[in-house]
């Protein structure tokens, strides 16, 4: 997915945020998991939907072609998005023993720091829809539903949310548990790579009149980074992790040998 200015800004200020694409290619960015709050109600899966229910039963064809799937509503869940040319933050909260939907408008502030208006209700996003319909300033004519705008029709995001539930309630969503761990491992590798890139730029670059940024000692690294696809970058990250694991195992074996020698 191509980065626009607003999503690039959000992802660079917090690397634990994650970008997704909704059906139809509109995008949203999910806040990191440390803000999520698992409730006792999450341990019970029930097809009886009432106002206190913390799951939605939705048809998600990528996850099941025959049955509806349970999609968790987790307090602290928050996404950033852009409707037309206006920026919004959408969040779930738990008040008066029920899930509440909060939306906050930031007008044209792509940094999401200057809130213009905020509203909370247990009736989904009907108030936001009414606000947009009556506004001459907010230009948005796309799909409008709470599940869609919150990213709860995005299969990959749903798998992550169900995987998060499974970390706290191991009896639920076993299939998504491995997916969640894989995502965490991927994020860890990316963090290591970003720290390494920053360290290289800080320590090794010299001023190049041609702005190629070739670093000292003839190392094969340039300022703009290696050309290549996401697959290549991912493969390099996996290879890095394998080498780190091998190095750790070698150190462990050497430690055991030293003990036997003494």
Would you mind describing this structure in some detail?
With 262 residues, the protein is of the alpha+beta class. The protein has two domains: 5-172, Double Stranded RNA Binding Domain, CATH 3.30.160; 182-261, no CATH class. The protein is built from six helices and eight strands. It has helices at 5-13, 126-133, 146-149, 155-168, 174-204, 230-261, and strands at 18-21, 27-30, 55-58, 69-72, 78-83, 86-95, 98-105, 117-121. The strands form two sheets. It has a six-stranded antiparallel sheet, with helices on one face. A two-stranded antiparallel ribbon has the order 3-4. Helix 4 packs across helix 5 (174-204) and helix 5 (174-204) crosses helix 6 (230-261). The longest helix has 32 residues, at 230-261. The mean pLDDT is 81.
Pick out its properties.
262 residues, 2 domains, six-stranded antiparallel β-sheet, 6 helices
Question: What is shown here, in short?
Answer:
By secondary structure, this protein is α+β, with helices and mostly antiparallel strands. It has 2 domains: 168 residues, 2-Layer Sandwich (Double Stranded RNA Binding Domain), CATH 3.30.160; 80 residues, no CATH class.
């Amino acid at each position: 997915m191509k980065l626009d200015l607003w999503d690039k800004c959000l992802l660079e200020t917090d690397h634990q945020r994650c970008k997704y694409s909704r059906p139809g290619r509109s995008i949203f960015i999910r806040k990191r998991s440390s803000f999520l709050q698992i409730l006792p109600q999450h341990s019970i899966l029930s097809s009886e939907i009432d106002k206190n229910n913390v799951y939605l039963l939705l048809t998600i064809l990528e996850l099941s072609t025959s049955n509806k799937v349970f999609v968790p509503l987790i307090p602290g869940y928050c996404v950033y998005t852009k409707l037309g040319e206006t920026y919004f933050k959408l969040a779930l909260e738990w008040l008066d023993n029920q899930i509440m939907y909060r939306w906050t408008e930031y007008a044209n502030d792509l940094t999401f720091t200057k809130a213009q208006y905020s509203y909370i209700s247990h009736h989904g996003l009907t108030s936001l829809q009414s606000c947009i319909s009556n506004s001459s300033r907010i230009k948005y004519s796309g799909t409008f539903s709470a599940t869609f705008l919150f990213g709860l029709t995005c299969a990959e995001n749903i798998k992550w949310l169900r995987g998060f539930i499974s970390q706290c309630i191991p009896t639920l969503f076993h299939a998504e548990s491995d997916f969640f761990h894989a995502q965490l491992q991927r994020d860890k590798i990316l963090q290591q790579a970003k720290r390494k890139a920053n360290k290289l730029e800080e320590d090794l670059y010299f001023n190049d009149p041609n702005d190629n940024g070739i670093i000292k000692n003839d190392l094969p690294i340039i300022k703009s980074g290696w050309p290549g696809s996401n697959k290549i970058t991912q493969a390099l990250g996996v290879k890095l992790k394998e080498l780190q694991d091998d190095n750790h195992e070698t150190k462990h074996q050497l430690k055991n040998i030293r003990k036997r020698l003494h």
